[in-house]
Every structure is written in structure tokens, then in C-alpha cells.
Amino acid sequence: MWSLTRFGQSRELDRLKTFLSWALPSTMLSSVVVAELTTGAGTDRARRVLDDAVLTPFDRRGRIVAPSAAASRRTGALLARSGATGLTASRQNDALLATQARERGWVVVTRDRDLRMLRPLISGLQVAAPYPDRP
């Protein structure tokens, strides 16, 4: 899970706002990420920053999307094979986000190394480091 302490750093928040200033109209936010970010918002200030900088702009535009039933089934199948892949149930959110992204053709923007390790298990999964440059 990505800690919201990074948002408390003005440089990181500025980078996020710059990225969203051009990317928000074509960027979706998974409800899986919403849950993780909300969990990581441990202070009133962090919750306000999360709401103001991330959740409200995405929600206002209808750009928060829940995983489909098919993505959930694929995640369950992936976790069921965990003995062969080394993937544990504790990585369920990463696996669910990855299958959702693959299903929709999204690029996952993250620093999460665990999510990057799913690429060999989910054909076509695309992962990029924050924050990609404007095309």
C-alpha cells in the first residue's frame, strides 16, 4: 500500500497535481486503490489532502471504477495457484488491481514493486512509475 505521507510533502503533492492537470480526463481510479489510500490516510490532514487532491476530482468526473466480476474471478484463480506462483492472499489487492487493469487495457501507475512482480503472471499487464510525462 502506498503511504499518504508522500502527499504531505509539497513536492510530491505538486507532482501529483501537475500530472492530474492533464491526465485526469483520461485516467481512471480503481476502487481497490481508493480503499488502500483511505486506509493509509492516518491523520485528518492526510484525509483532507486525499479527498481534495484525489478522490473528489475523480469522483466528480465519474472516474472511480470497481473491478468486474470477471476480474474478481481471475484474481481468485491466480491466488488459488499461489503455491506454484508464490503469490499470497496478502497480495490480493495487487492481484485484483492488476487483473482489472489488464481487462480494461489500463497502465497501472505505481511505485509498488509487488505489483510489478505480477507482470509475468498477467500477460499484457502494463506498469509505469509515477508520474508519466505528458504525451
Low-confidence runs (pLDDT<50, min 5 residues)? 1-5
What is the H-and-E element order? Answer: HEHHEHHHEHE
Per the principal axes of the C-alpha atoms, what is the gross shape? globular
Per CATH, the class reads Alpha Beta
Q: What is the helix tally?
A: 7
- Secondary-structure class: mainly alpha
Find the CATH superfamily: 5'-nuclease
Number of self-contained structural domains: 1
CATH architecture: 3-Layer(aba) Sandwich
User: For the residues shown, what is the average pLDDT?
Assistant: 85
Number of DSSP E strands:
4
Beta-strand content: 5-15%
Q: Main sheet, how many strands, which sense, barrel?
A: 2 strands, parallel
Spatial arrangement of strands, main beta sheet: 1-2
Distance between the termini: 27 Å
As a percent range, the share of helical residues equals: 40-55%
| Radius of gyration (Å) | 15 Å
Q: What name does the CATH topology carry?
A: Rossmann fold
How would you portray this structure in words?
- The chain has 135 residues and is mainly alpha-helical.
- It has one domain: Rossmann fold.
- It has helices at residues 10-23, 31-40, 44-60, 69-80, 82-85, 92-104, 113-116, and strands at residues 29-30, 64-65, 107-109, 126-128.
- 19% of the residues are buried.
Compact summary:
By secondary structure, this protein is mostly helical. The chain contains seven helices and four strands.
Write the layout of secondary structure elements.
Elements: H1 10-23, E1 29-30, H2 31-40, H3 44-60, E2 64-65, H4 69-80, H5 82-85, H6 92-104, E3 107-109, H7 113-116, E4 126-128
Parallel strand pairs: 1-2, 3-4
Helix pairs in contact: 2-3, 4-6
